[in-house]
Amino acid sequence: MKLYNTMTNRKEEFVPVHEGKVGMYVCGPTVYNYIHIGNARPMVVFDTVRRYFEYKGYDVNYVSNFTDVDDKIIKKANEEGVSSQEISERFIKECKKDMEGLNVKEATHHPKATEEIDGMIAMIRTLIEKGHAYEKDGTVYFKTRSFKDYGHLSNKNLDDMQAGIRIAVSDEKEDPMDFVLWKPKKEGEPSWPSPWGDGRPGWHIECSVMSKKYIGRTIDIHAGGEDLVFPHHENEIAQSEAANGEKFANYWMHNAFLNIDNKKMSKSAGNFFTVREISEKYPLQVIRFFMLSAHYRSPLNFSDTLVEASKNGLERILTCVDSLKSLEGTAKEGPMTEEEEKNADRIKELVAKYEEAMEDDFNTADAIAAVFEIVKLANVTAKDSGKAYISYARETLVKLCDILGIITEKEEELLDSDIEALIEERQQARKAKNFARADEIRSQLLEQGIILEDTRAGVKWKRA
Question: What pLDDT digit, counting tens, does each position of 430-463 carry?
Fold first, then answer.
């Protein structure tokens, strides 16, 4: 299996730190609003990478954080007159709903920055002790020039970067390229006690600490959008390797930008869309399929025309799976005929083509092309075939689509978000003394295997 490593600018064979295991860290969103369509691309792309590793038998430790302390969160909280925690908790919940709609699997660990402050303070202390950081009036800075390989990931030279600075530099800094590890408390902001006074961590230190805690000193794959290469990922490498004395990540994967109608997405241009807004127009399964229709390192252009094309393509696959399922029910039993065996061998060749595409830096576009070839073959050969062949064709399609995160068969189980919504509706019905509707919802949930329990602490539920 080969993947493109941003650090070396070439495809490299994947060799894990621990045989049969993959430690993967993907930078998550800053939770101050609904996630936008650009946030969704790395979520979908790297969820698919994870799924393929699992398909190949790897035990994947997939970690994706939530940045829940940040200037934007504080600004939003002050605007609404609520705490930063209330804002972050609200939008973590909404983010998870959108991820569920996109069929992004729950991470092995979803750490929050605010729950890892002790680890950040410990790493900052280590950096100071090793001479890689210094404190000035409650602010702790990383001494960038103390790390000799700084700029390797982004192909930037420190002297060139410093020469390009056009703004006044704080007198506190020893060097204009030094970056913040810890910042002192300001009025109206959340803060934590530290050896340098009450304050909060800088952005970059968060991911260094969380990846180390949940994966280890050296992780297999660090991933995110290409906008994070500099300065975020560059700074992560510097502080992690300076503190730990070991290589931080063996492979760096970055997805390209998503544009809207060939223009960069921005609020000022009026082409900024959240996933929630898009879901009102298109099923999120269509959006996921669309995002996998191009290679992850290629810029992706979002337009109604292209999304409609993806919608039609997805419907072709789903229709084929439905047709095969219907044929299965009436098809004759028994082993495959010689002709069916030949067709099954052709499907196996297409599965190999699919795997070859995925193992060549996760080329989902070519993998999807192989799926369409199986659909075309199945549509031609299944009608007069026996059950064994039809079942094989259907199960193969379902398996390959599952790797892509495409749901090919209607799930009978209600999503957690749907259950919570029905429980909330039931609570409102009870408050309005509409007990008939409340009982109807309880019965409806029971039919779906959901058991409700009314307690003093509220309504609890479980699957039968």
Answer: 889 898 898 889 888 887 778 888 887 788 888 7
Token pair for residue 431?
């408050």
Q: Poorest-confidence range of 183-192, 214-223, 241-250, 261-270?
A: 261-270
* Torsions phi, psi for 109 (to 5 deg): -140, 135
Decide whether 2-255 matches 304-403 in CATH topology: no
What is the rounded CA–CA span in Å between residue 57 and residue 89?
Answer: 35
Spatial distance between the Cα atoms of 150 and 156, rounded to a whole number of angstroms: 8
Closest CA to 102 of 290, 237, 251, 381: 290
Backbone angles phi, psi at 155, to 5 degrees: 55, 40
Question: pLDDT tens-digit profile of 165-206?
Answer: 544 555 689 999 999 999 999 998 999 999 999 999 999 999
User: Which tokens go with 9?
Assistant: 């600018």
**Which among 174, 184, 183, 182 has a CA at the least distance from the CA of 144?**
174
| Residue 255, strand partner residues | 225
CATH number for region 2-255? 3.40.50.620
CATH class of 304-403: mainly alpha
Please list, in sequence order, all residues whose beta carbon lies within 8 angstroms of the beta carbon of residue 254, skipping any fewer than 6 positions away. 6, 223, 224, 225, 226, 228, 229, 297
What is the overall mean pLDDT for the chain?
93
Domain boundaries, the chain: 2-255, 304-403, 416-463
Cα 365 to chain centroid distance, Å, stands at 19
